[in-house]
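To the team - S-adenosylmethionine complex, inputs and output below.
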Amino acid sequence: MEPGFWRERWHNGEIAFHRDRFHPALERFWPAITGDPGAVLVPLCGKTLDMRWLAQRGHTVTGVELERRAVEAFFHEWGVDPLERERADGLVELVGADVHLVIGDFFAFRPATAVDGFLDRGALVALPQSMREAYLAHLADCVAPGAQGLLITFEYDTAGMNGPPFVVTAAELGAQPWFGVECLERADATAEYPHLVERGARGLCEIVYRLTRFDRSRGTG
Ligand SMILES: C[S@@+](CC[C@H](N)C(=O)[O-])C[C@H]1O[C@@H](n2cnc3c(N)ncnc32)[C@H](O)[C@@H]1O
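Output:
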């Protein structure tokens, strides 16, 4: 997916991926991911309300998003007036209420501090297969060994639709060398995402995984 694809989506307000409340998997599974109020990374964050949920539980949240208007909308809709500053990695971030939203390409992002936890909802599935390995390798570089995160993916019959969001299978996840993968939940998602069913996604399921960053000695990264 080229940056222009996403910029156009934001420009035209075609953001059906955005939920008007936080993802319910957070309440069910986040307490088992990390009990400590440490630093959490949200790659390809859009303006997801999940970041508010995490910040309200004491985490320092860093989101990374290509599109400035998404980042500005996140703070505006929260009623927070952010400060803008340049980061050591050369990208710009808006900061408010312990949420740092970095504007730019995730692949150019370098975390300023060790990241203890991460949330990938709508990030890996936003990328075609040709980009997903590089994405997971970079995510693995960004987080501390042993860090855990939630990954939320979709599966559906690709005869009627083929992303985004793309299908990410358990077999694909099991083949990557950076993270241990544990499936926490698999649920029918046809009622939850009618816009995807309308686009042709038959048999739509949403799957929640726990990822655990292997120690560097076990992975290749
Ligand atoms: C499917 S949306 C999901 C947004 C958010 N995670 C959510 O759940 O609402 C994918 C987002 O990733 C952003 N994006 C795509 N490629 C990116 C990249 N290389 N670096 C940073 N952001 C990117 C897009 O602008 C878009 O907002």
